[in-house]
Amino acid sequence: MAKTSLKSSMKIPWRRTLLVACLIGVLCLSALVEGADKSDDKADDKSDEKKSEDKSDDKKSDEKTDDKKSDEKTDDKKSDDKKSDEKSDDKSDEKSDKKGDQEYDEFGDPKTPGSESSLFGGSDSGDGDGKGGPPEIPKSVQTCDGIYISYNFMGREKEYPHVKNATAQSWAFKAQAGLINMGATELKSWKLFIGFHHRELLVSLDGAVLAEGDDFPAEVGVNGTTIAGYPQADLKTAIQTAGDFNQMSVTVGIKGTMFGVKPPATPMPKTIKLENEGFKCPAPTIHKTSMYACCRKDKKFKPKNTTIKYTQKRYGDLNIMYDVLQAYGNNYQAQVTIENDHPLGRLDHWNLTWEWMRGEFIYSMRGAYTHLNDAAQCIYGPQGQYYQDFDFSKVMNCQRKPVIADLPREMKEDDHIGKLPFCCRNGTLLPKTMNESEARSIFQLQVFKIPPDLNRTAIYPPQNWRFSGVLNPSYKCGAPVRVEPTEFPDPSGLQAKVLAAASWQVVCNITKPKEKQNRCCVTFSAYYNESIIPCNTCACGCDDLPEGTRCSAKAPAMLLPAEALLVPFENRTKKAEAWAGIKHLPLWDPMPCPDNCRVSINWHVDADYKNGWTARMTLFNWGDIPFEDWFTAIQMNKAGEGFEKVYSFNGTLLHKYNNTIFMQGLEGLNYLIAIKNGSSASEPRVPGKQQSVISFTKKLTWKLDIPGGDGFPAKVFFNGEECALPKVIPTKGGGNQSYRTNGVVTLILTSIIAFFLMTDRFR
């Protein structure tokens, strides 16, 4: 034990001694190396000094000059070094900035490398030296033999105001939609449906337009939306382009606002699908931030014409052709043809608006005019920068969104702006069921372009077409679609045809007015009930009420006596209150707001007997503008089959349109005058009126229940506008006092209206 402890105690100092010796050796070695370096430096310095002394002895006179030059050179070198350092610092800053831009986008979300250069995340083509190469195509695209469609959610950020309610919080988002033609046939005028459902508002689209022509921001979060290609509307095949994905595919940048979906949830659409005819799309494959599908040709679909080069023409309620008649380098002449193909569609004093997308402006027009002539927008815009010596005082319109109107009839034979067929009718466009010769309007315009479209083939039609009239249906127009050039007769009179240089078609369809946005309304009455059911409260809106008006927009309209229909709403209050007292009806506080409609129509069931029944219709014009060549249409459904005759109007039954009775005034009685003042200042104003009795037979409709509702129309139209109907119909007994004394209400109402009609005639 003693030996062992002695040995262990002797080991420790031996190791310490060895470690200290090693450290001393290292220090000595480093000192020797430094000394050698210093001695070498001194030797070099001495040799340099000796050489310099020898040179100074030989050239003492030049020494000062050389020293001066060397000093200047050293100063220049220092300044150059300083500049190079600054440049290197700038380059390093730029590199760091670029690195930051590549890693994060404007929303703070990481960017996918190469996502901006290709639809697949790679370069679209090689650069000629083999470095680029073809893009990396995913397997889902390679296996598609039709139209590959995709949607990618790119990122979002929280918008102001910041609220605690998650469903009310808005988020700015961006997304990307893509289409690739992987099939063997060219896709013309592509349209893609995106099923948004998070209360989205689209703010902008890059590479497409809204197919329905809505303005931004557009609410699309209820029923989704359809986008159409612009300016690249067609997608060619790999066969046609030797695999050029720039012509085969398109990428659409989407920016907008959505509500209620906070991270980590991803606000993806319900679905995406191709809207072009002849394609069937399966349910898309959905991932967390992307979805895609391959739309293939429908084998059951048979196109009407497979030989045409462009998209087939479609036909809607209002069809417009934009034909280029002459094309030059920086301008072209176009003709716009508007045709009404709906049996109940109509426009009065129409206004047409569209949007120039590439800086075009209207130099002159024939057959129409613009509401504003302001050359300043051209002079101070890109048009003035290019056309510096151009006389813009002769330019008709420089607006991005011009408002175009038809010329009045007296300008039809004007040598400068008239003398066009189907022009100059003061904006009247009638249905073909009424007058086929006035169902079309035409005007021409001279359009100037700016760079880069200075080529006679670089022609882009305006987008976002919209029509409006005085009291007419609302139209929604699609995007212009390139179609086969329109054929025109040879102006020389020869049996030849002249083709347009290029043609686009715009299709517009009538939309059903939203609740409380109508422009006409209907009242109901019947021989078996004393009360008149008035138009709905705020049937035509309550936005334009005078300040200080106290009324309820939600209270139901109050029942009226028959004579109250003949006076304006402001004169009905006392009559309605008195009638409520007589019939023990409730009074509202505040009282219901007016209907605010310019035109109202009373439908009165006049009589009901074994072999038939009769109704009486009265038109009221409460506006300050008269209606020339008016028409009305009554959709009767089952009862329409028994239509016999209209006594004071021209009436026709349209079987194809749900048994709709089309009525217009007789010659000399086709003018519905405007409202006018009463006979004295204390008398209420008197509306314009027209009235007729309509008879029906029960030979084919003997099972009709007239009091049960079969005697009242399902829809009523005035000049093409669908009117608001009451929510209830007159009933026997029930809440209102009723009686079967045939003709009491009819006698009162007819007598008063007949009196006013007679007095109007004698005046």
Automatic annotation (TrEMBL):
It comes from the Eukaryota. Keywords: Cell membrane, Glycoprotein, GPI-anchor, Lipoprotein, Membrane, Signal. Belongs to the COBRA family. Residues 35-102 have a biased composition (Basic and acidic residues). InterPro entries: COB_C, COBRA_pln. This is COBRA C-terminal domain-containing protein. Residues 1-35 form the signal peptide.
